[in-house]
Design brief:
The structure is a homodimer of 418-residue chains.
Chain A: H1 7-24, E1 28-29, H2 30-37, H3 41-53, E2 57-60, H4 66-69, E3 78-81, E4 87-94, E5 97-104, E6 109-116, H5 124-141, E7 149-156, E8 159-161, E9 166-169, E10 178-179, H6 181-188, E11 192-196, H7 197-208, H8 216-219, E12 224-230, E13 234-240, E14 243-245, H9 276-279, H10 281-288, H11 303-314, H12 318-342, E15 346-350, H13 357-371, H14 374-377, E16 381-384, H15 391-408
Parallel strand pairs in A: 4-7, 7-11, 12-15, 15-16
Antiparallel strand pairs in A: 1-3, 2-3, 4-5, 5-6, 8-9, 9-10, 12-13, 13-14
Helix pairs in contact in A: 2-3, 5-6, 7-15, 10-12, 11-12, 12-13
The structure holds a DNA duplex (30 and 30 nucleotides).
DNA sequence: CTTCATTATTTCGGAACTCGAAATTAAACG
DNA sequence: CGTTTAATTTCGAGTTCCGAAATAATGAAG
């Protein structure tokens, strides 16, 4: 059942849509906010005044676009997030690497670093402390105060338990059940969560994509966009109802470890026949090189070896071409299964795994065609798009900021807070 | 982006939760409604007064449960939906059969019928008219007025396009693209929709289940319940966020036609290797009887033949046992794939397809175990429950009534309307 | 340089809700 | 028949939004 509604709900929701519009469409004047949100100018005035009083927003002086500033009438004054009053910290951990990005409330990245860290053989009970140390160093090196950081989000490959902030399993770690959120919460006394990296890509895509409205608004039907990332692994994020869906425990959309062939090739997750076992770097490598099925699947395939494979595929070497075709088919059948279950309206596929595109794209589409009835398939837009490499950090920041918007919005108008 | 909020949203939402509570928990007094919804007694008084003025609710005289009525103090007066002021009409079409149920606003079925109708060889352009005629007859035979019917919902096996009210494909029809909603809308001038029957089972389950709260409320995480029905076919409904998810076009959760084995056994949908091709009646029959793979898959298996098969399975006939095991494995891998994508918190399985339960249940669980990583699996409750046979009509009625609640709730307090 | 036109923003009063506290109502108890 | 108890209603206050009118800040025109 839904929650009861009262004026507090109204305030929260309207403040949130104002903040969200502002975050997505850059600095905006009150009139513009009114047009975008559907709120009256009077209400925008009130809401803006409160947000300004709370040090969340500020008016930006001058510098309007020429086309607008040379009009008659009172010029508009745009509003923007105040920088330096609050930050969020996004962290991405991948195999033996940690990246940090500090962003202000407007989403601007103000500080950024990447460094080496031993993950694979890390001790679970120590790793949280190591990350905390890195954060402390990172913040010390910046000119920002740790106290200005509202929230930390960690994006990581593998299976995250968001309720408990634990990394249940990851190809980056030999160990299981690595606690990540608690050590940081204890150390820095701020909210901290852990999420799957592919879901963070979806968060970023959600922000980018807010402009083109999903079709649900028009038809009343619910639309889903699935974002699939293929490369060192295969991940997916699901955007439903303008939110990224994380599932009951945060493990939603483990697309790469959805089974493709029952009792098939071994996967680094320990099961057999996962999509990744055919479509991820190591799966393609294994097939192309005719390695035995029980070949330890978790060794990272370096970019040089993948480049070799690509060249061989371009050259038409049959075994390699077949490997890429198998990879495409695995992805295609996975997408077909996704369509059968969720009837999404849009599927976006990206990542280095698409490099041998003239082989893999047709194989994907063929797999989709073989795997699901045409009536379901024909309404789904399947798009191949490039993602920028830092999409994970970007998405983590976006997710953190949406969190903060919700929080900022929670308490009554009682002076500065953030 | 979310919609802006205003006092109308507040009214709508609060009216809806009141109506919903009343529908699910039978007649309730104002105090009880207050406790359940979290609204103050004062607000409940106001809301109830409006709903009574609009002829939607009425006070029920006397007959309180003894335990309550023999207390001191002013006795409570319960509220209930007024009967006879409005109805919804639920229709279930299956192979060569049509069932109709007329329910009043409280959800009580006041009239009900089932009859024969030729579907499989029906002409698409004529079938809508035939259904309309049946409805007219049905209503004429009842003592209710067609004008009191607010809305019609049709539940049907196969793939429905809810946006256009068309049955895209169904095992009950040789033809494709059978228009169903438009003919009824034209004839009766009321809203009408078409939906998948398995999704209607989920609607019914949603109503039944509102008592035990889904876990999202507590944790903030999103929970999904999947309801799987296996029998003449295999269907699934997804309950997310206290709503049944229908997908972009209404084709969500075509679980039975999710691929199990690439290029596998032919399915009556025209693809190969669908779960149904192994787990539905005809799939089990085909395997158990060693029929060739290309055996026309769409002939209905009558209950007598299925009973034979069950007896043979009980008797331990190896080929038949193997067929049921294969069926269970297909279901199990399907569920494993579902878990990998959606990380649901609960999966409910039911239907006559579970009859050979000592064979099929372990096979299902083994398939799940083989198909998805333990960390994801362990948080999912998998339950085998009996559904009543009329669950489809029941769920359709529930869905229709929730629609009507939303509508009733839309306009301002301007006199009787429904 | 003044006045007008134009556009943005604020102010003000009214309307729609909810809520808490204080009546009011309707029974059982003694 | 008064007292106690519990349900419901009434009343006044507190939010928040909105429309209309007022105010502010500018360019254009004379």
């Amino acid at each position: 059942m839904q929650e009861k509604a009262d004026s507090e709900l109204v305030r929260r929701q309207n403040r949130r849509i104002v903040l969200r519009a502002l975050r997505e469409k850059g600095p905006l004047a009150r009139v513009e906010l009114g047009r975008m949100t559907g709120l009256s100018p009077a209400s925008i005035t009130t809401i803006a005044a409160q947000l300004i009083a709370e040090n969340i927003l500020e008016e930006v002086a001058g510098n309007l676009p020429l086309a607008i500033s040379s009009r008659r009438g009172r010029p508009m004054t745009r509003l923007r997030f105040r920088s330096n009053t609050g930050h969020v910290l996004a962290i991405n951990i991948s195999i033996d690497k940690i990246s940090l990005a500090l962003a202000d409330l407007s989403g601007l990245i103000v500080e950024c670093s990447a460094s080496h860290v031993l993950t694979f053989n890390a001790k679970p009970e120590q790793f949280g402390g190591i990350v905390a140390d890195r954060i402390a160093q990172f913040m010390a090196a910046s000119d920002r105060d740790m106290a200005s950081v509202n929230r930390i989000g960690i994006a990581i490959q593998g299976l995250a338990d968001m309720n408990n902030g634990i990394l249940l399993w990851s190809p980056a770690f030999a160990a299981r059940n690595v606690p990540l959120a608690e050590p940081l919460k204890d150390r820095f006394k701020i909210p901290c969560w852990v999420a799957n990296d592919a879901n963070m890509i979806a968060e970023g895509f959600l922000s980018l994509d807010m402009a083109e409205r999903s079709p649900d608004a028009a038809t009343g039907r619910q639309g889903i966009t699935a974002t699939i990332f293929t490369g060192y692994g295969v991940g997916m994020g699901l955007i439903m109802d303008d939110k990224v869906y994380h599932g009951a425990t945060g493990g939603a959309s483990e697309f790469g470890h959805m089974n493709h062939i029952p009792h098939g090739a071994p996967c680094r997750c320990g099961r057999r026949g996962c999509i990744e076992a055919y479509a991820a770097d190591y799966g393609i490598w294994r097939l192309a090189r005719g390695r035995p099925d029980d070949d330890a699947p978790h060794d990272a395939i370096d970019s040089q070896r993948m480049a070799e494979l690509l060249a061989a595929a371009e050259g038409g070497e049959p075994k390699v071409v077949a490997a890429f075709q198998t990879a495409g088919e695995a992805l295609g059948f996975g997408i077909a299964r996704l369509i059968a279950i969720l009837n999404p309206h849009r599927i976006v596929i990206a990542g280095p795994g698409l490099s041998a595109s003239h082989i893999i794209k047709p194989a994907i589409l063929a797999g989709v065609a073989d795997g699901v009835i045409e009536e379901l398939r024909r309404n789904v837009a399947i798009e191949f798009v490039p993602f920028e490499t830092d999409m994970i950090l970007r998405g983590t920041i976006d997710a953190l900021l949406r969190d903060v918007d919700g929080e900022v919005t929670a308490h009554s108008s009682a002076g500065a807070s953030v």
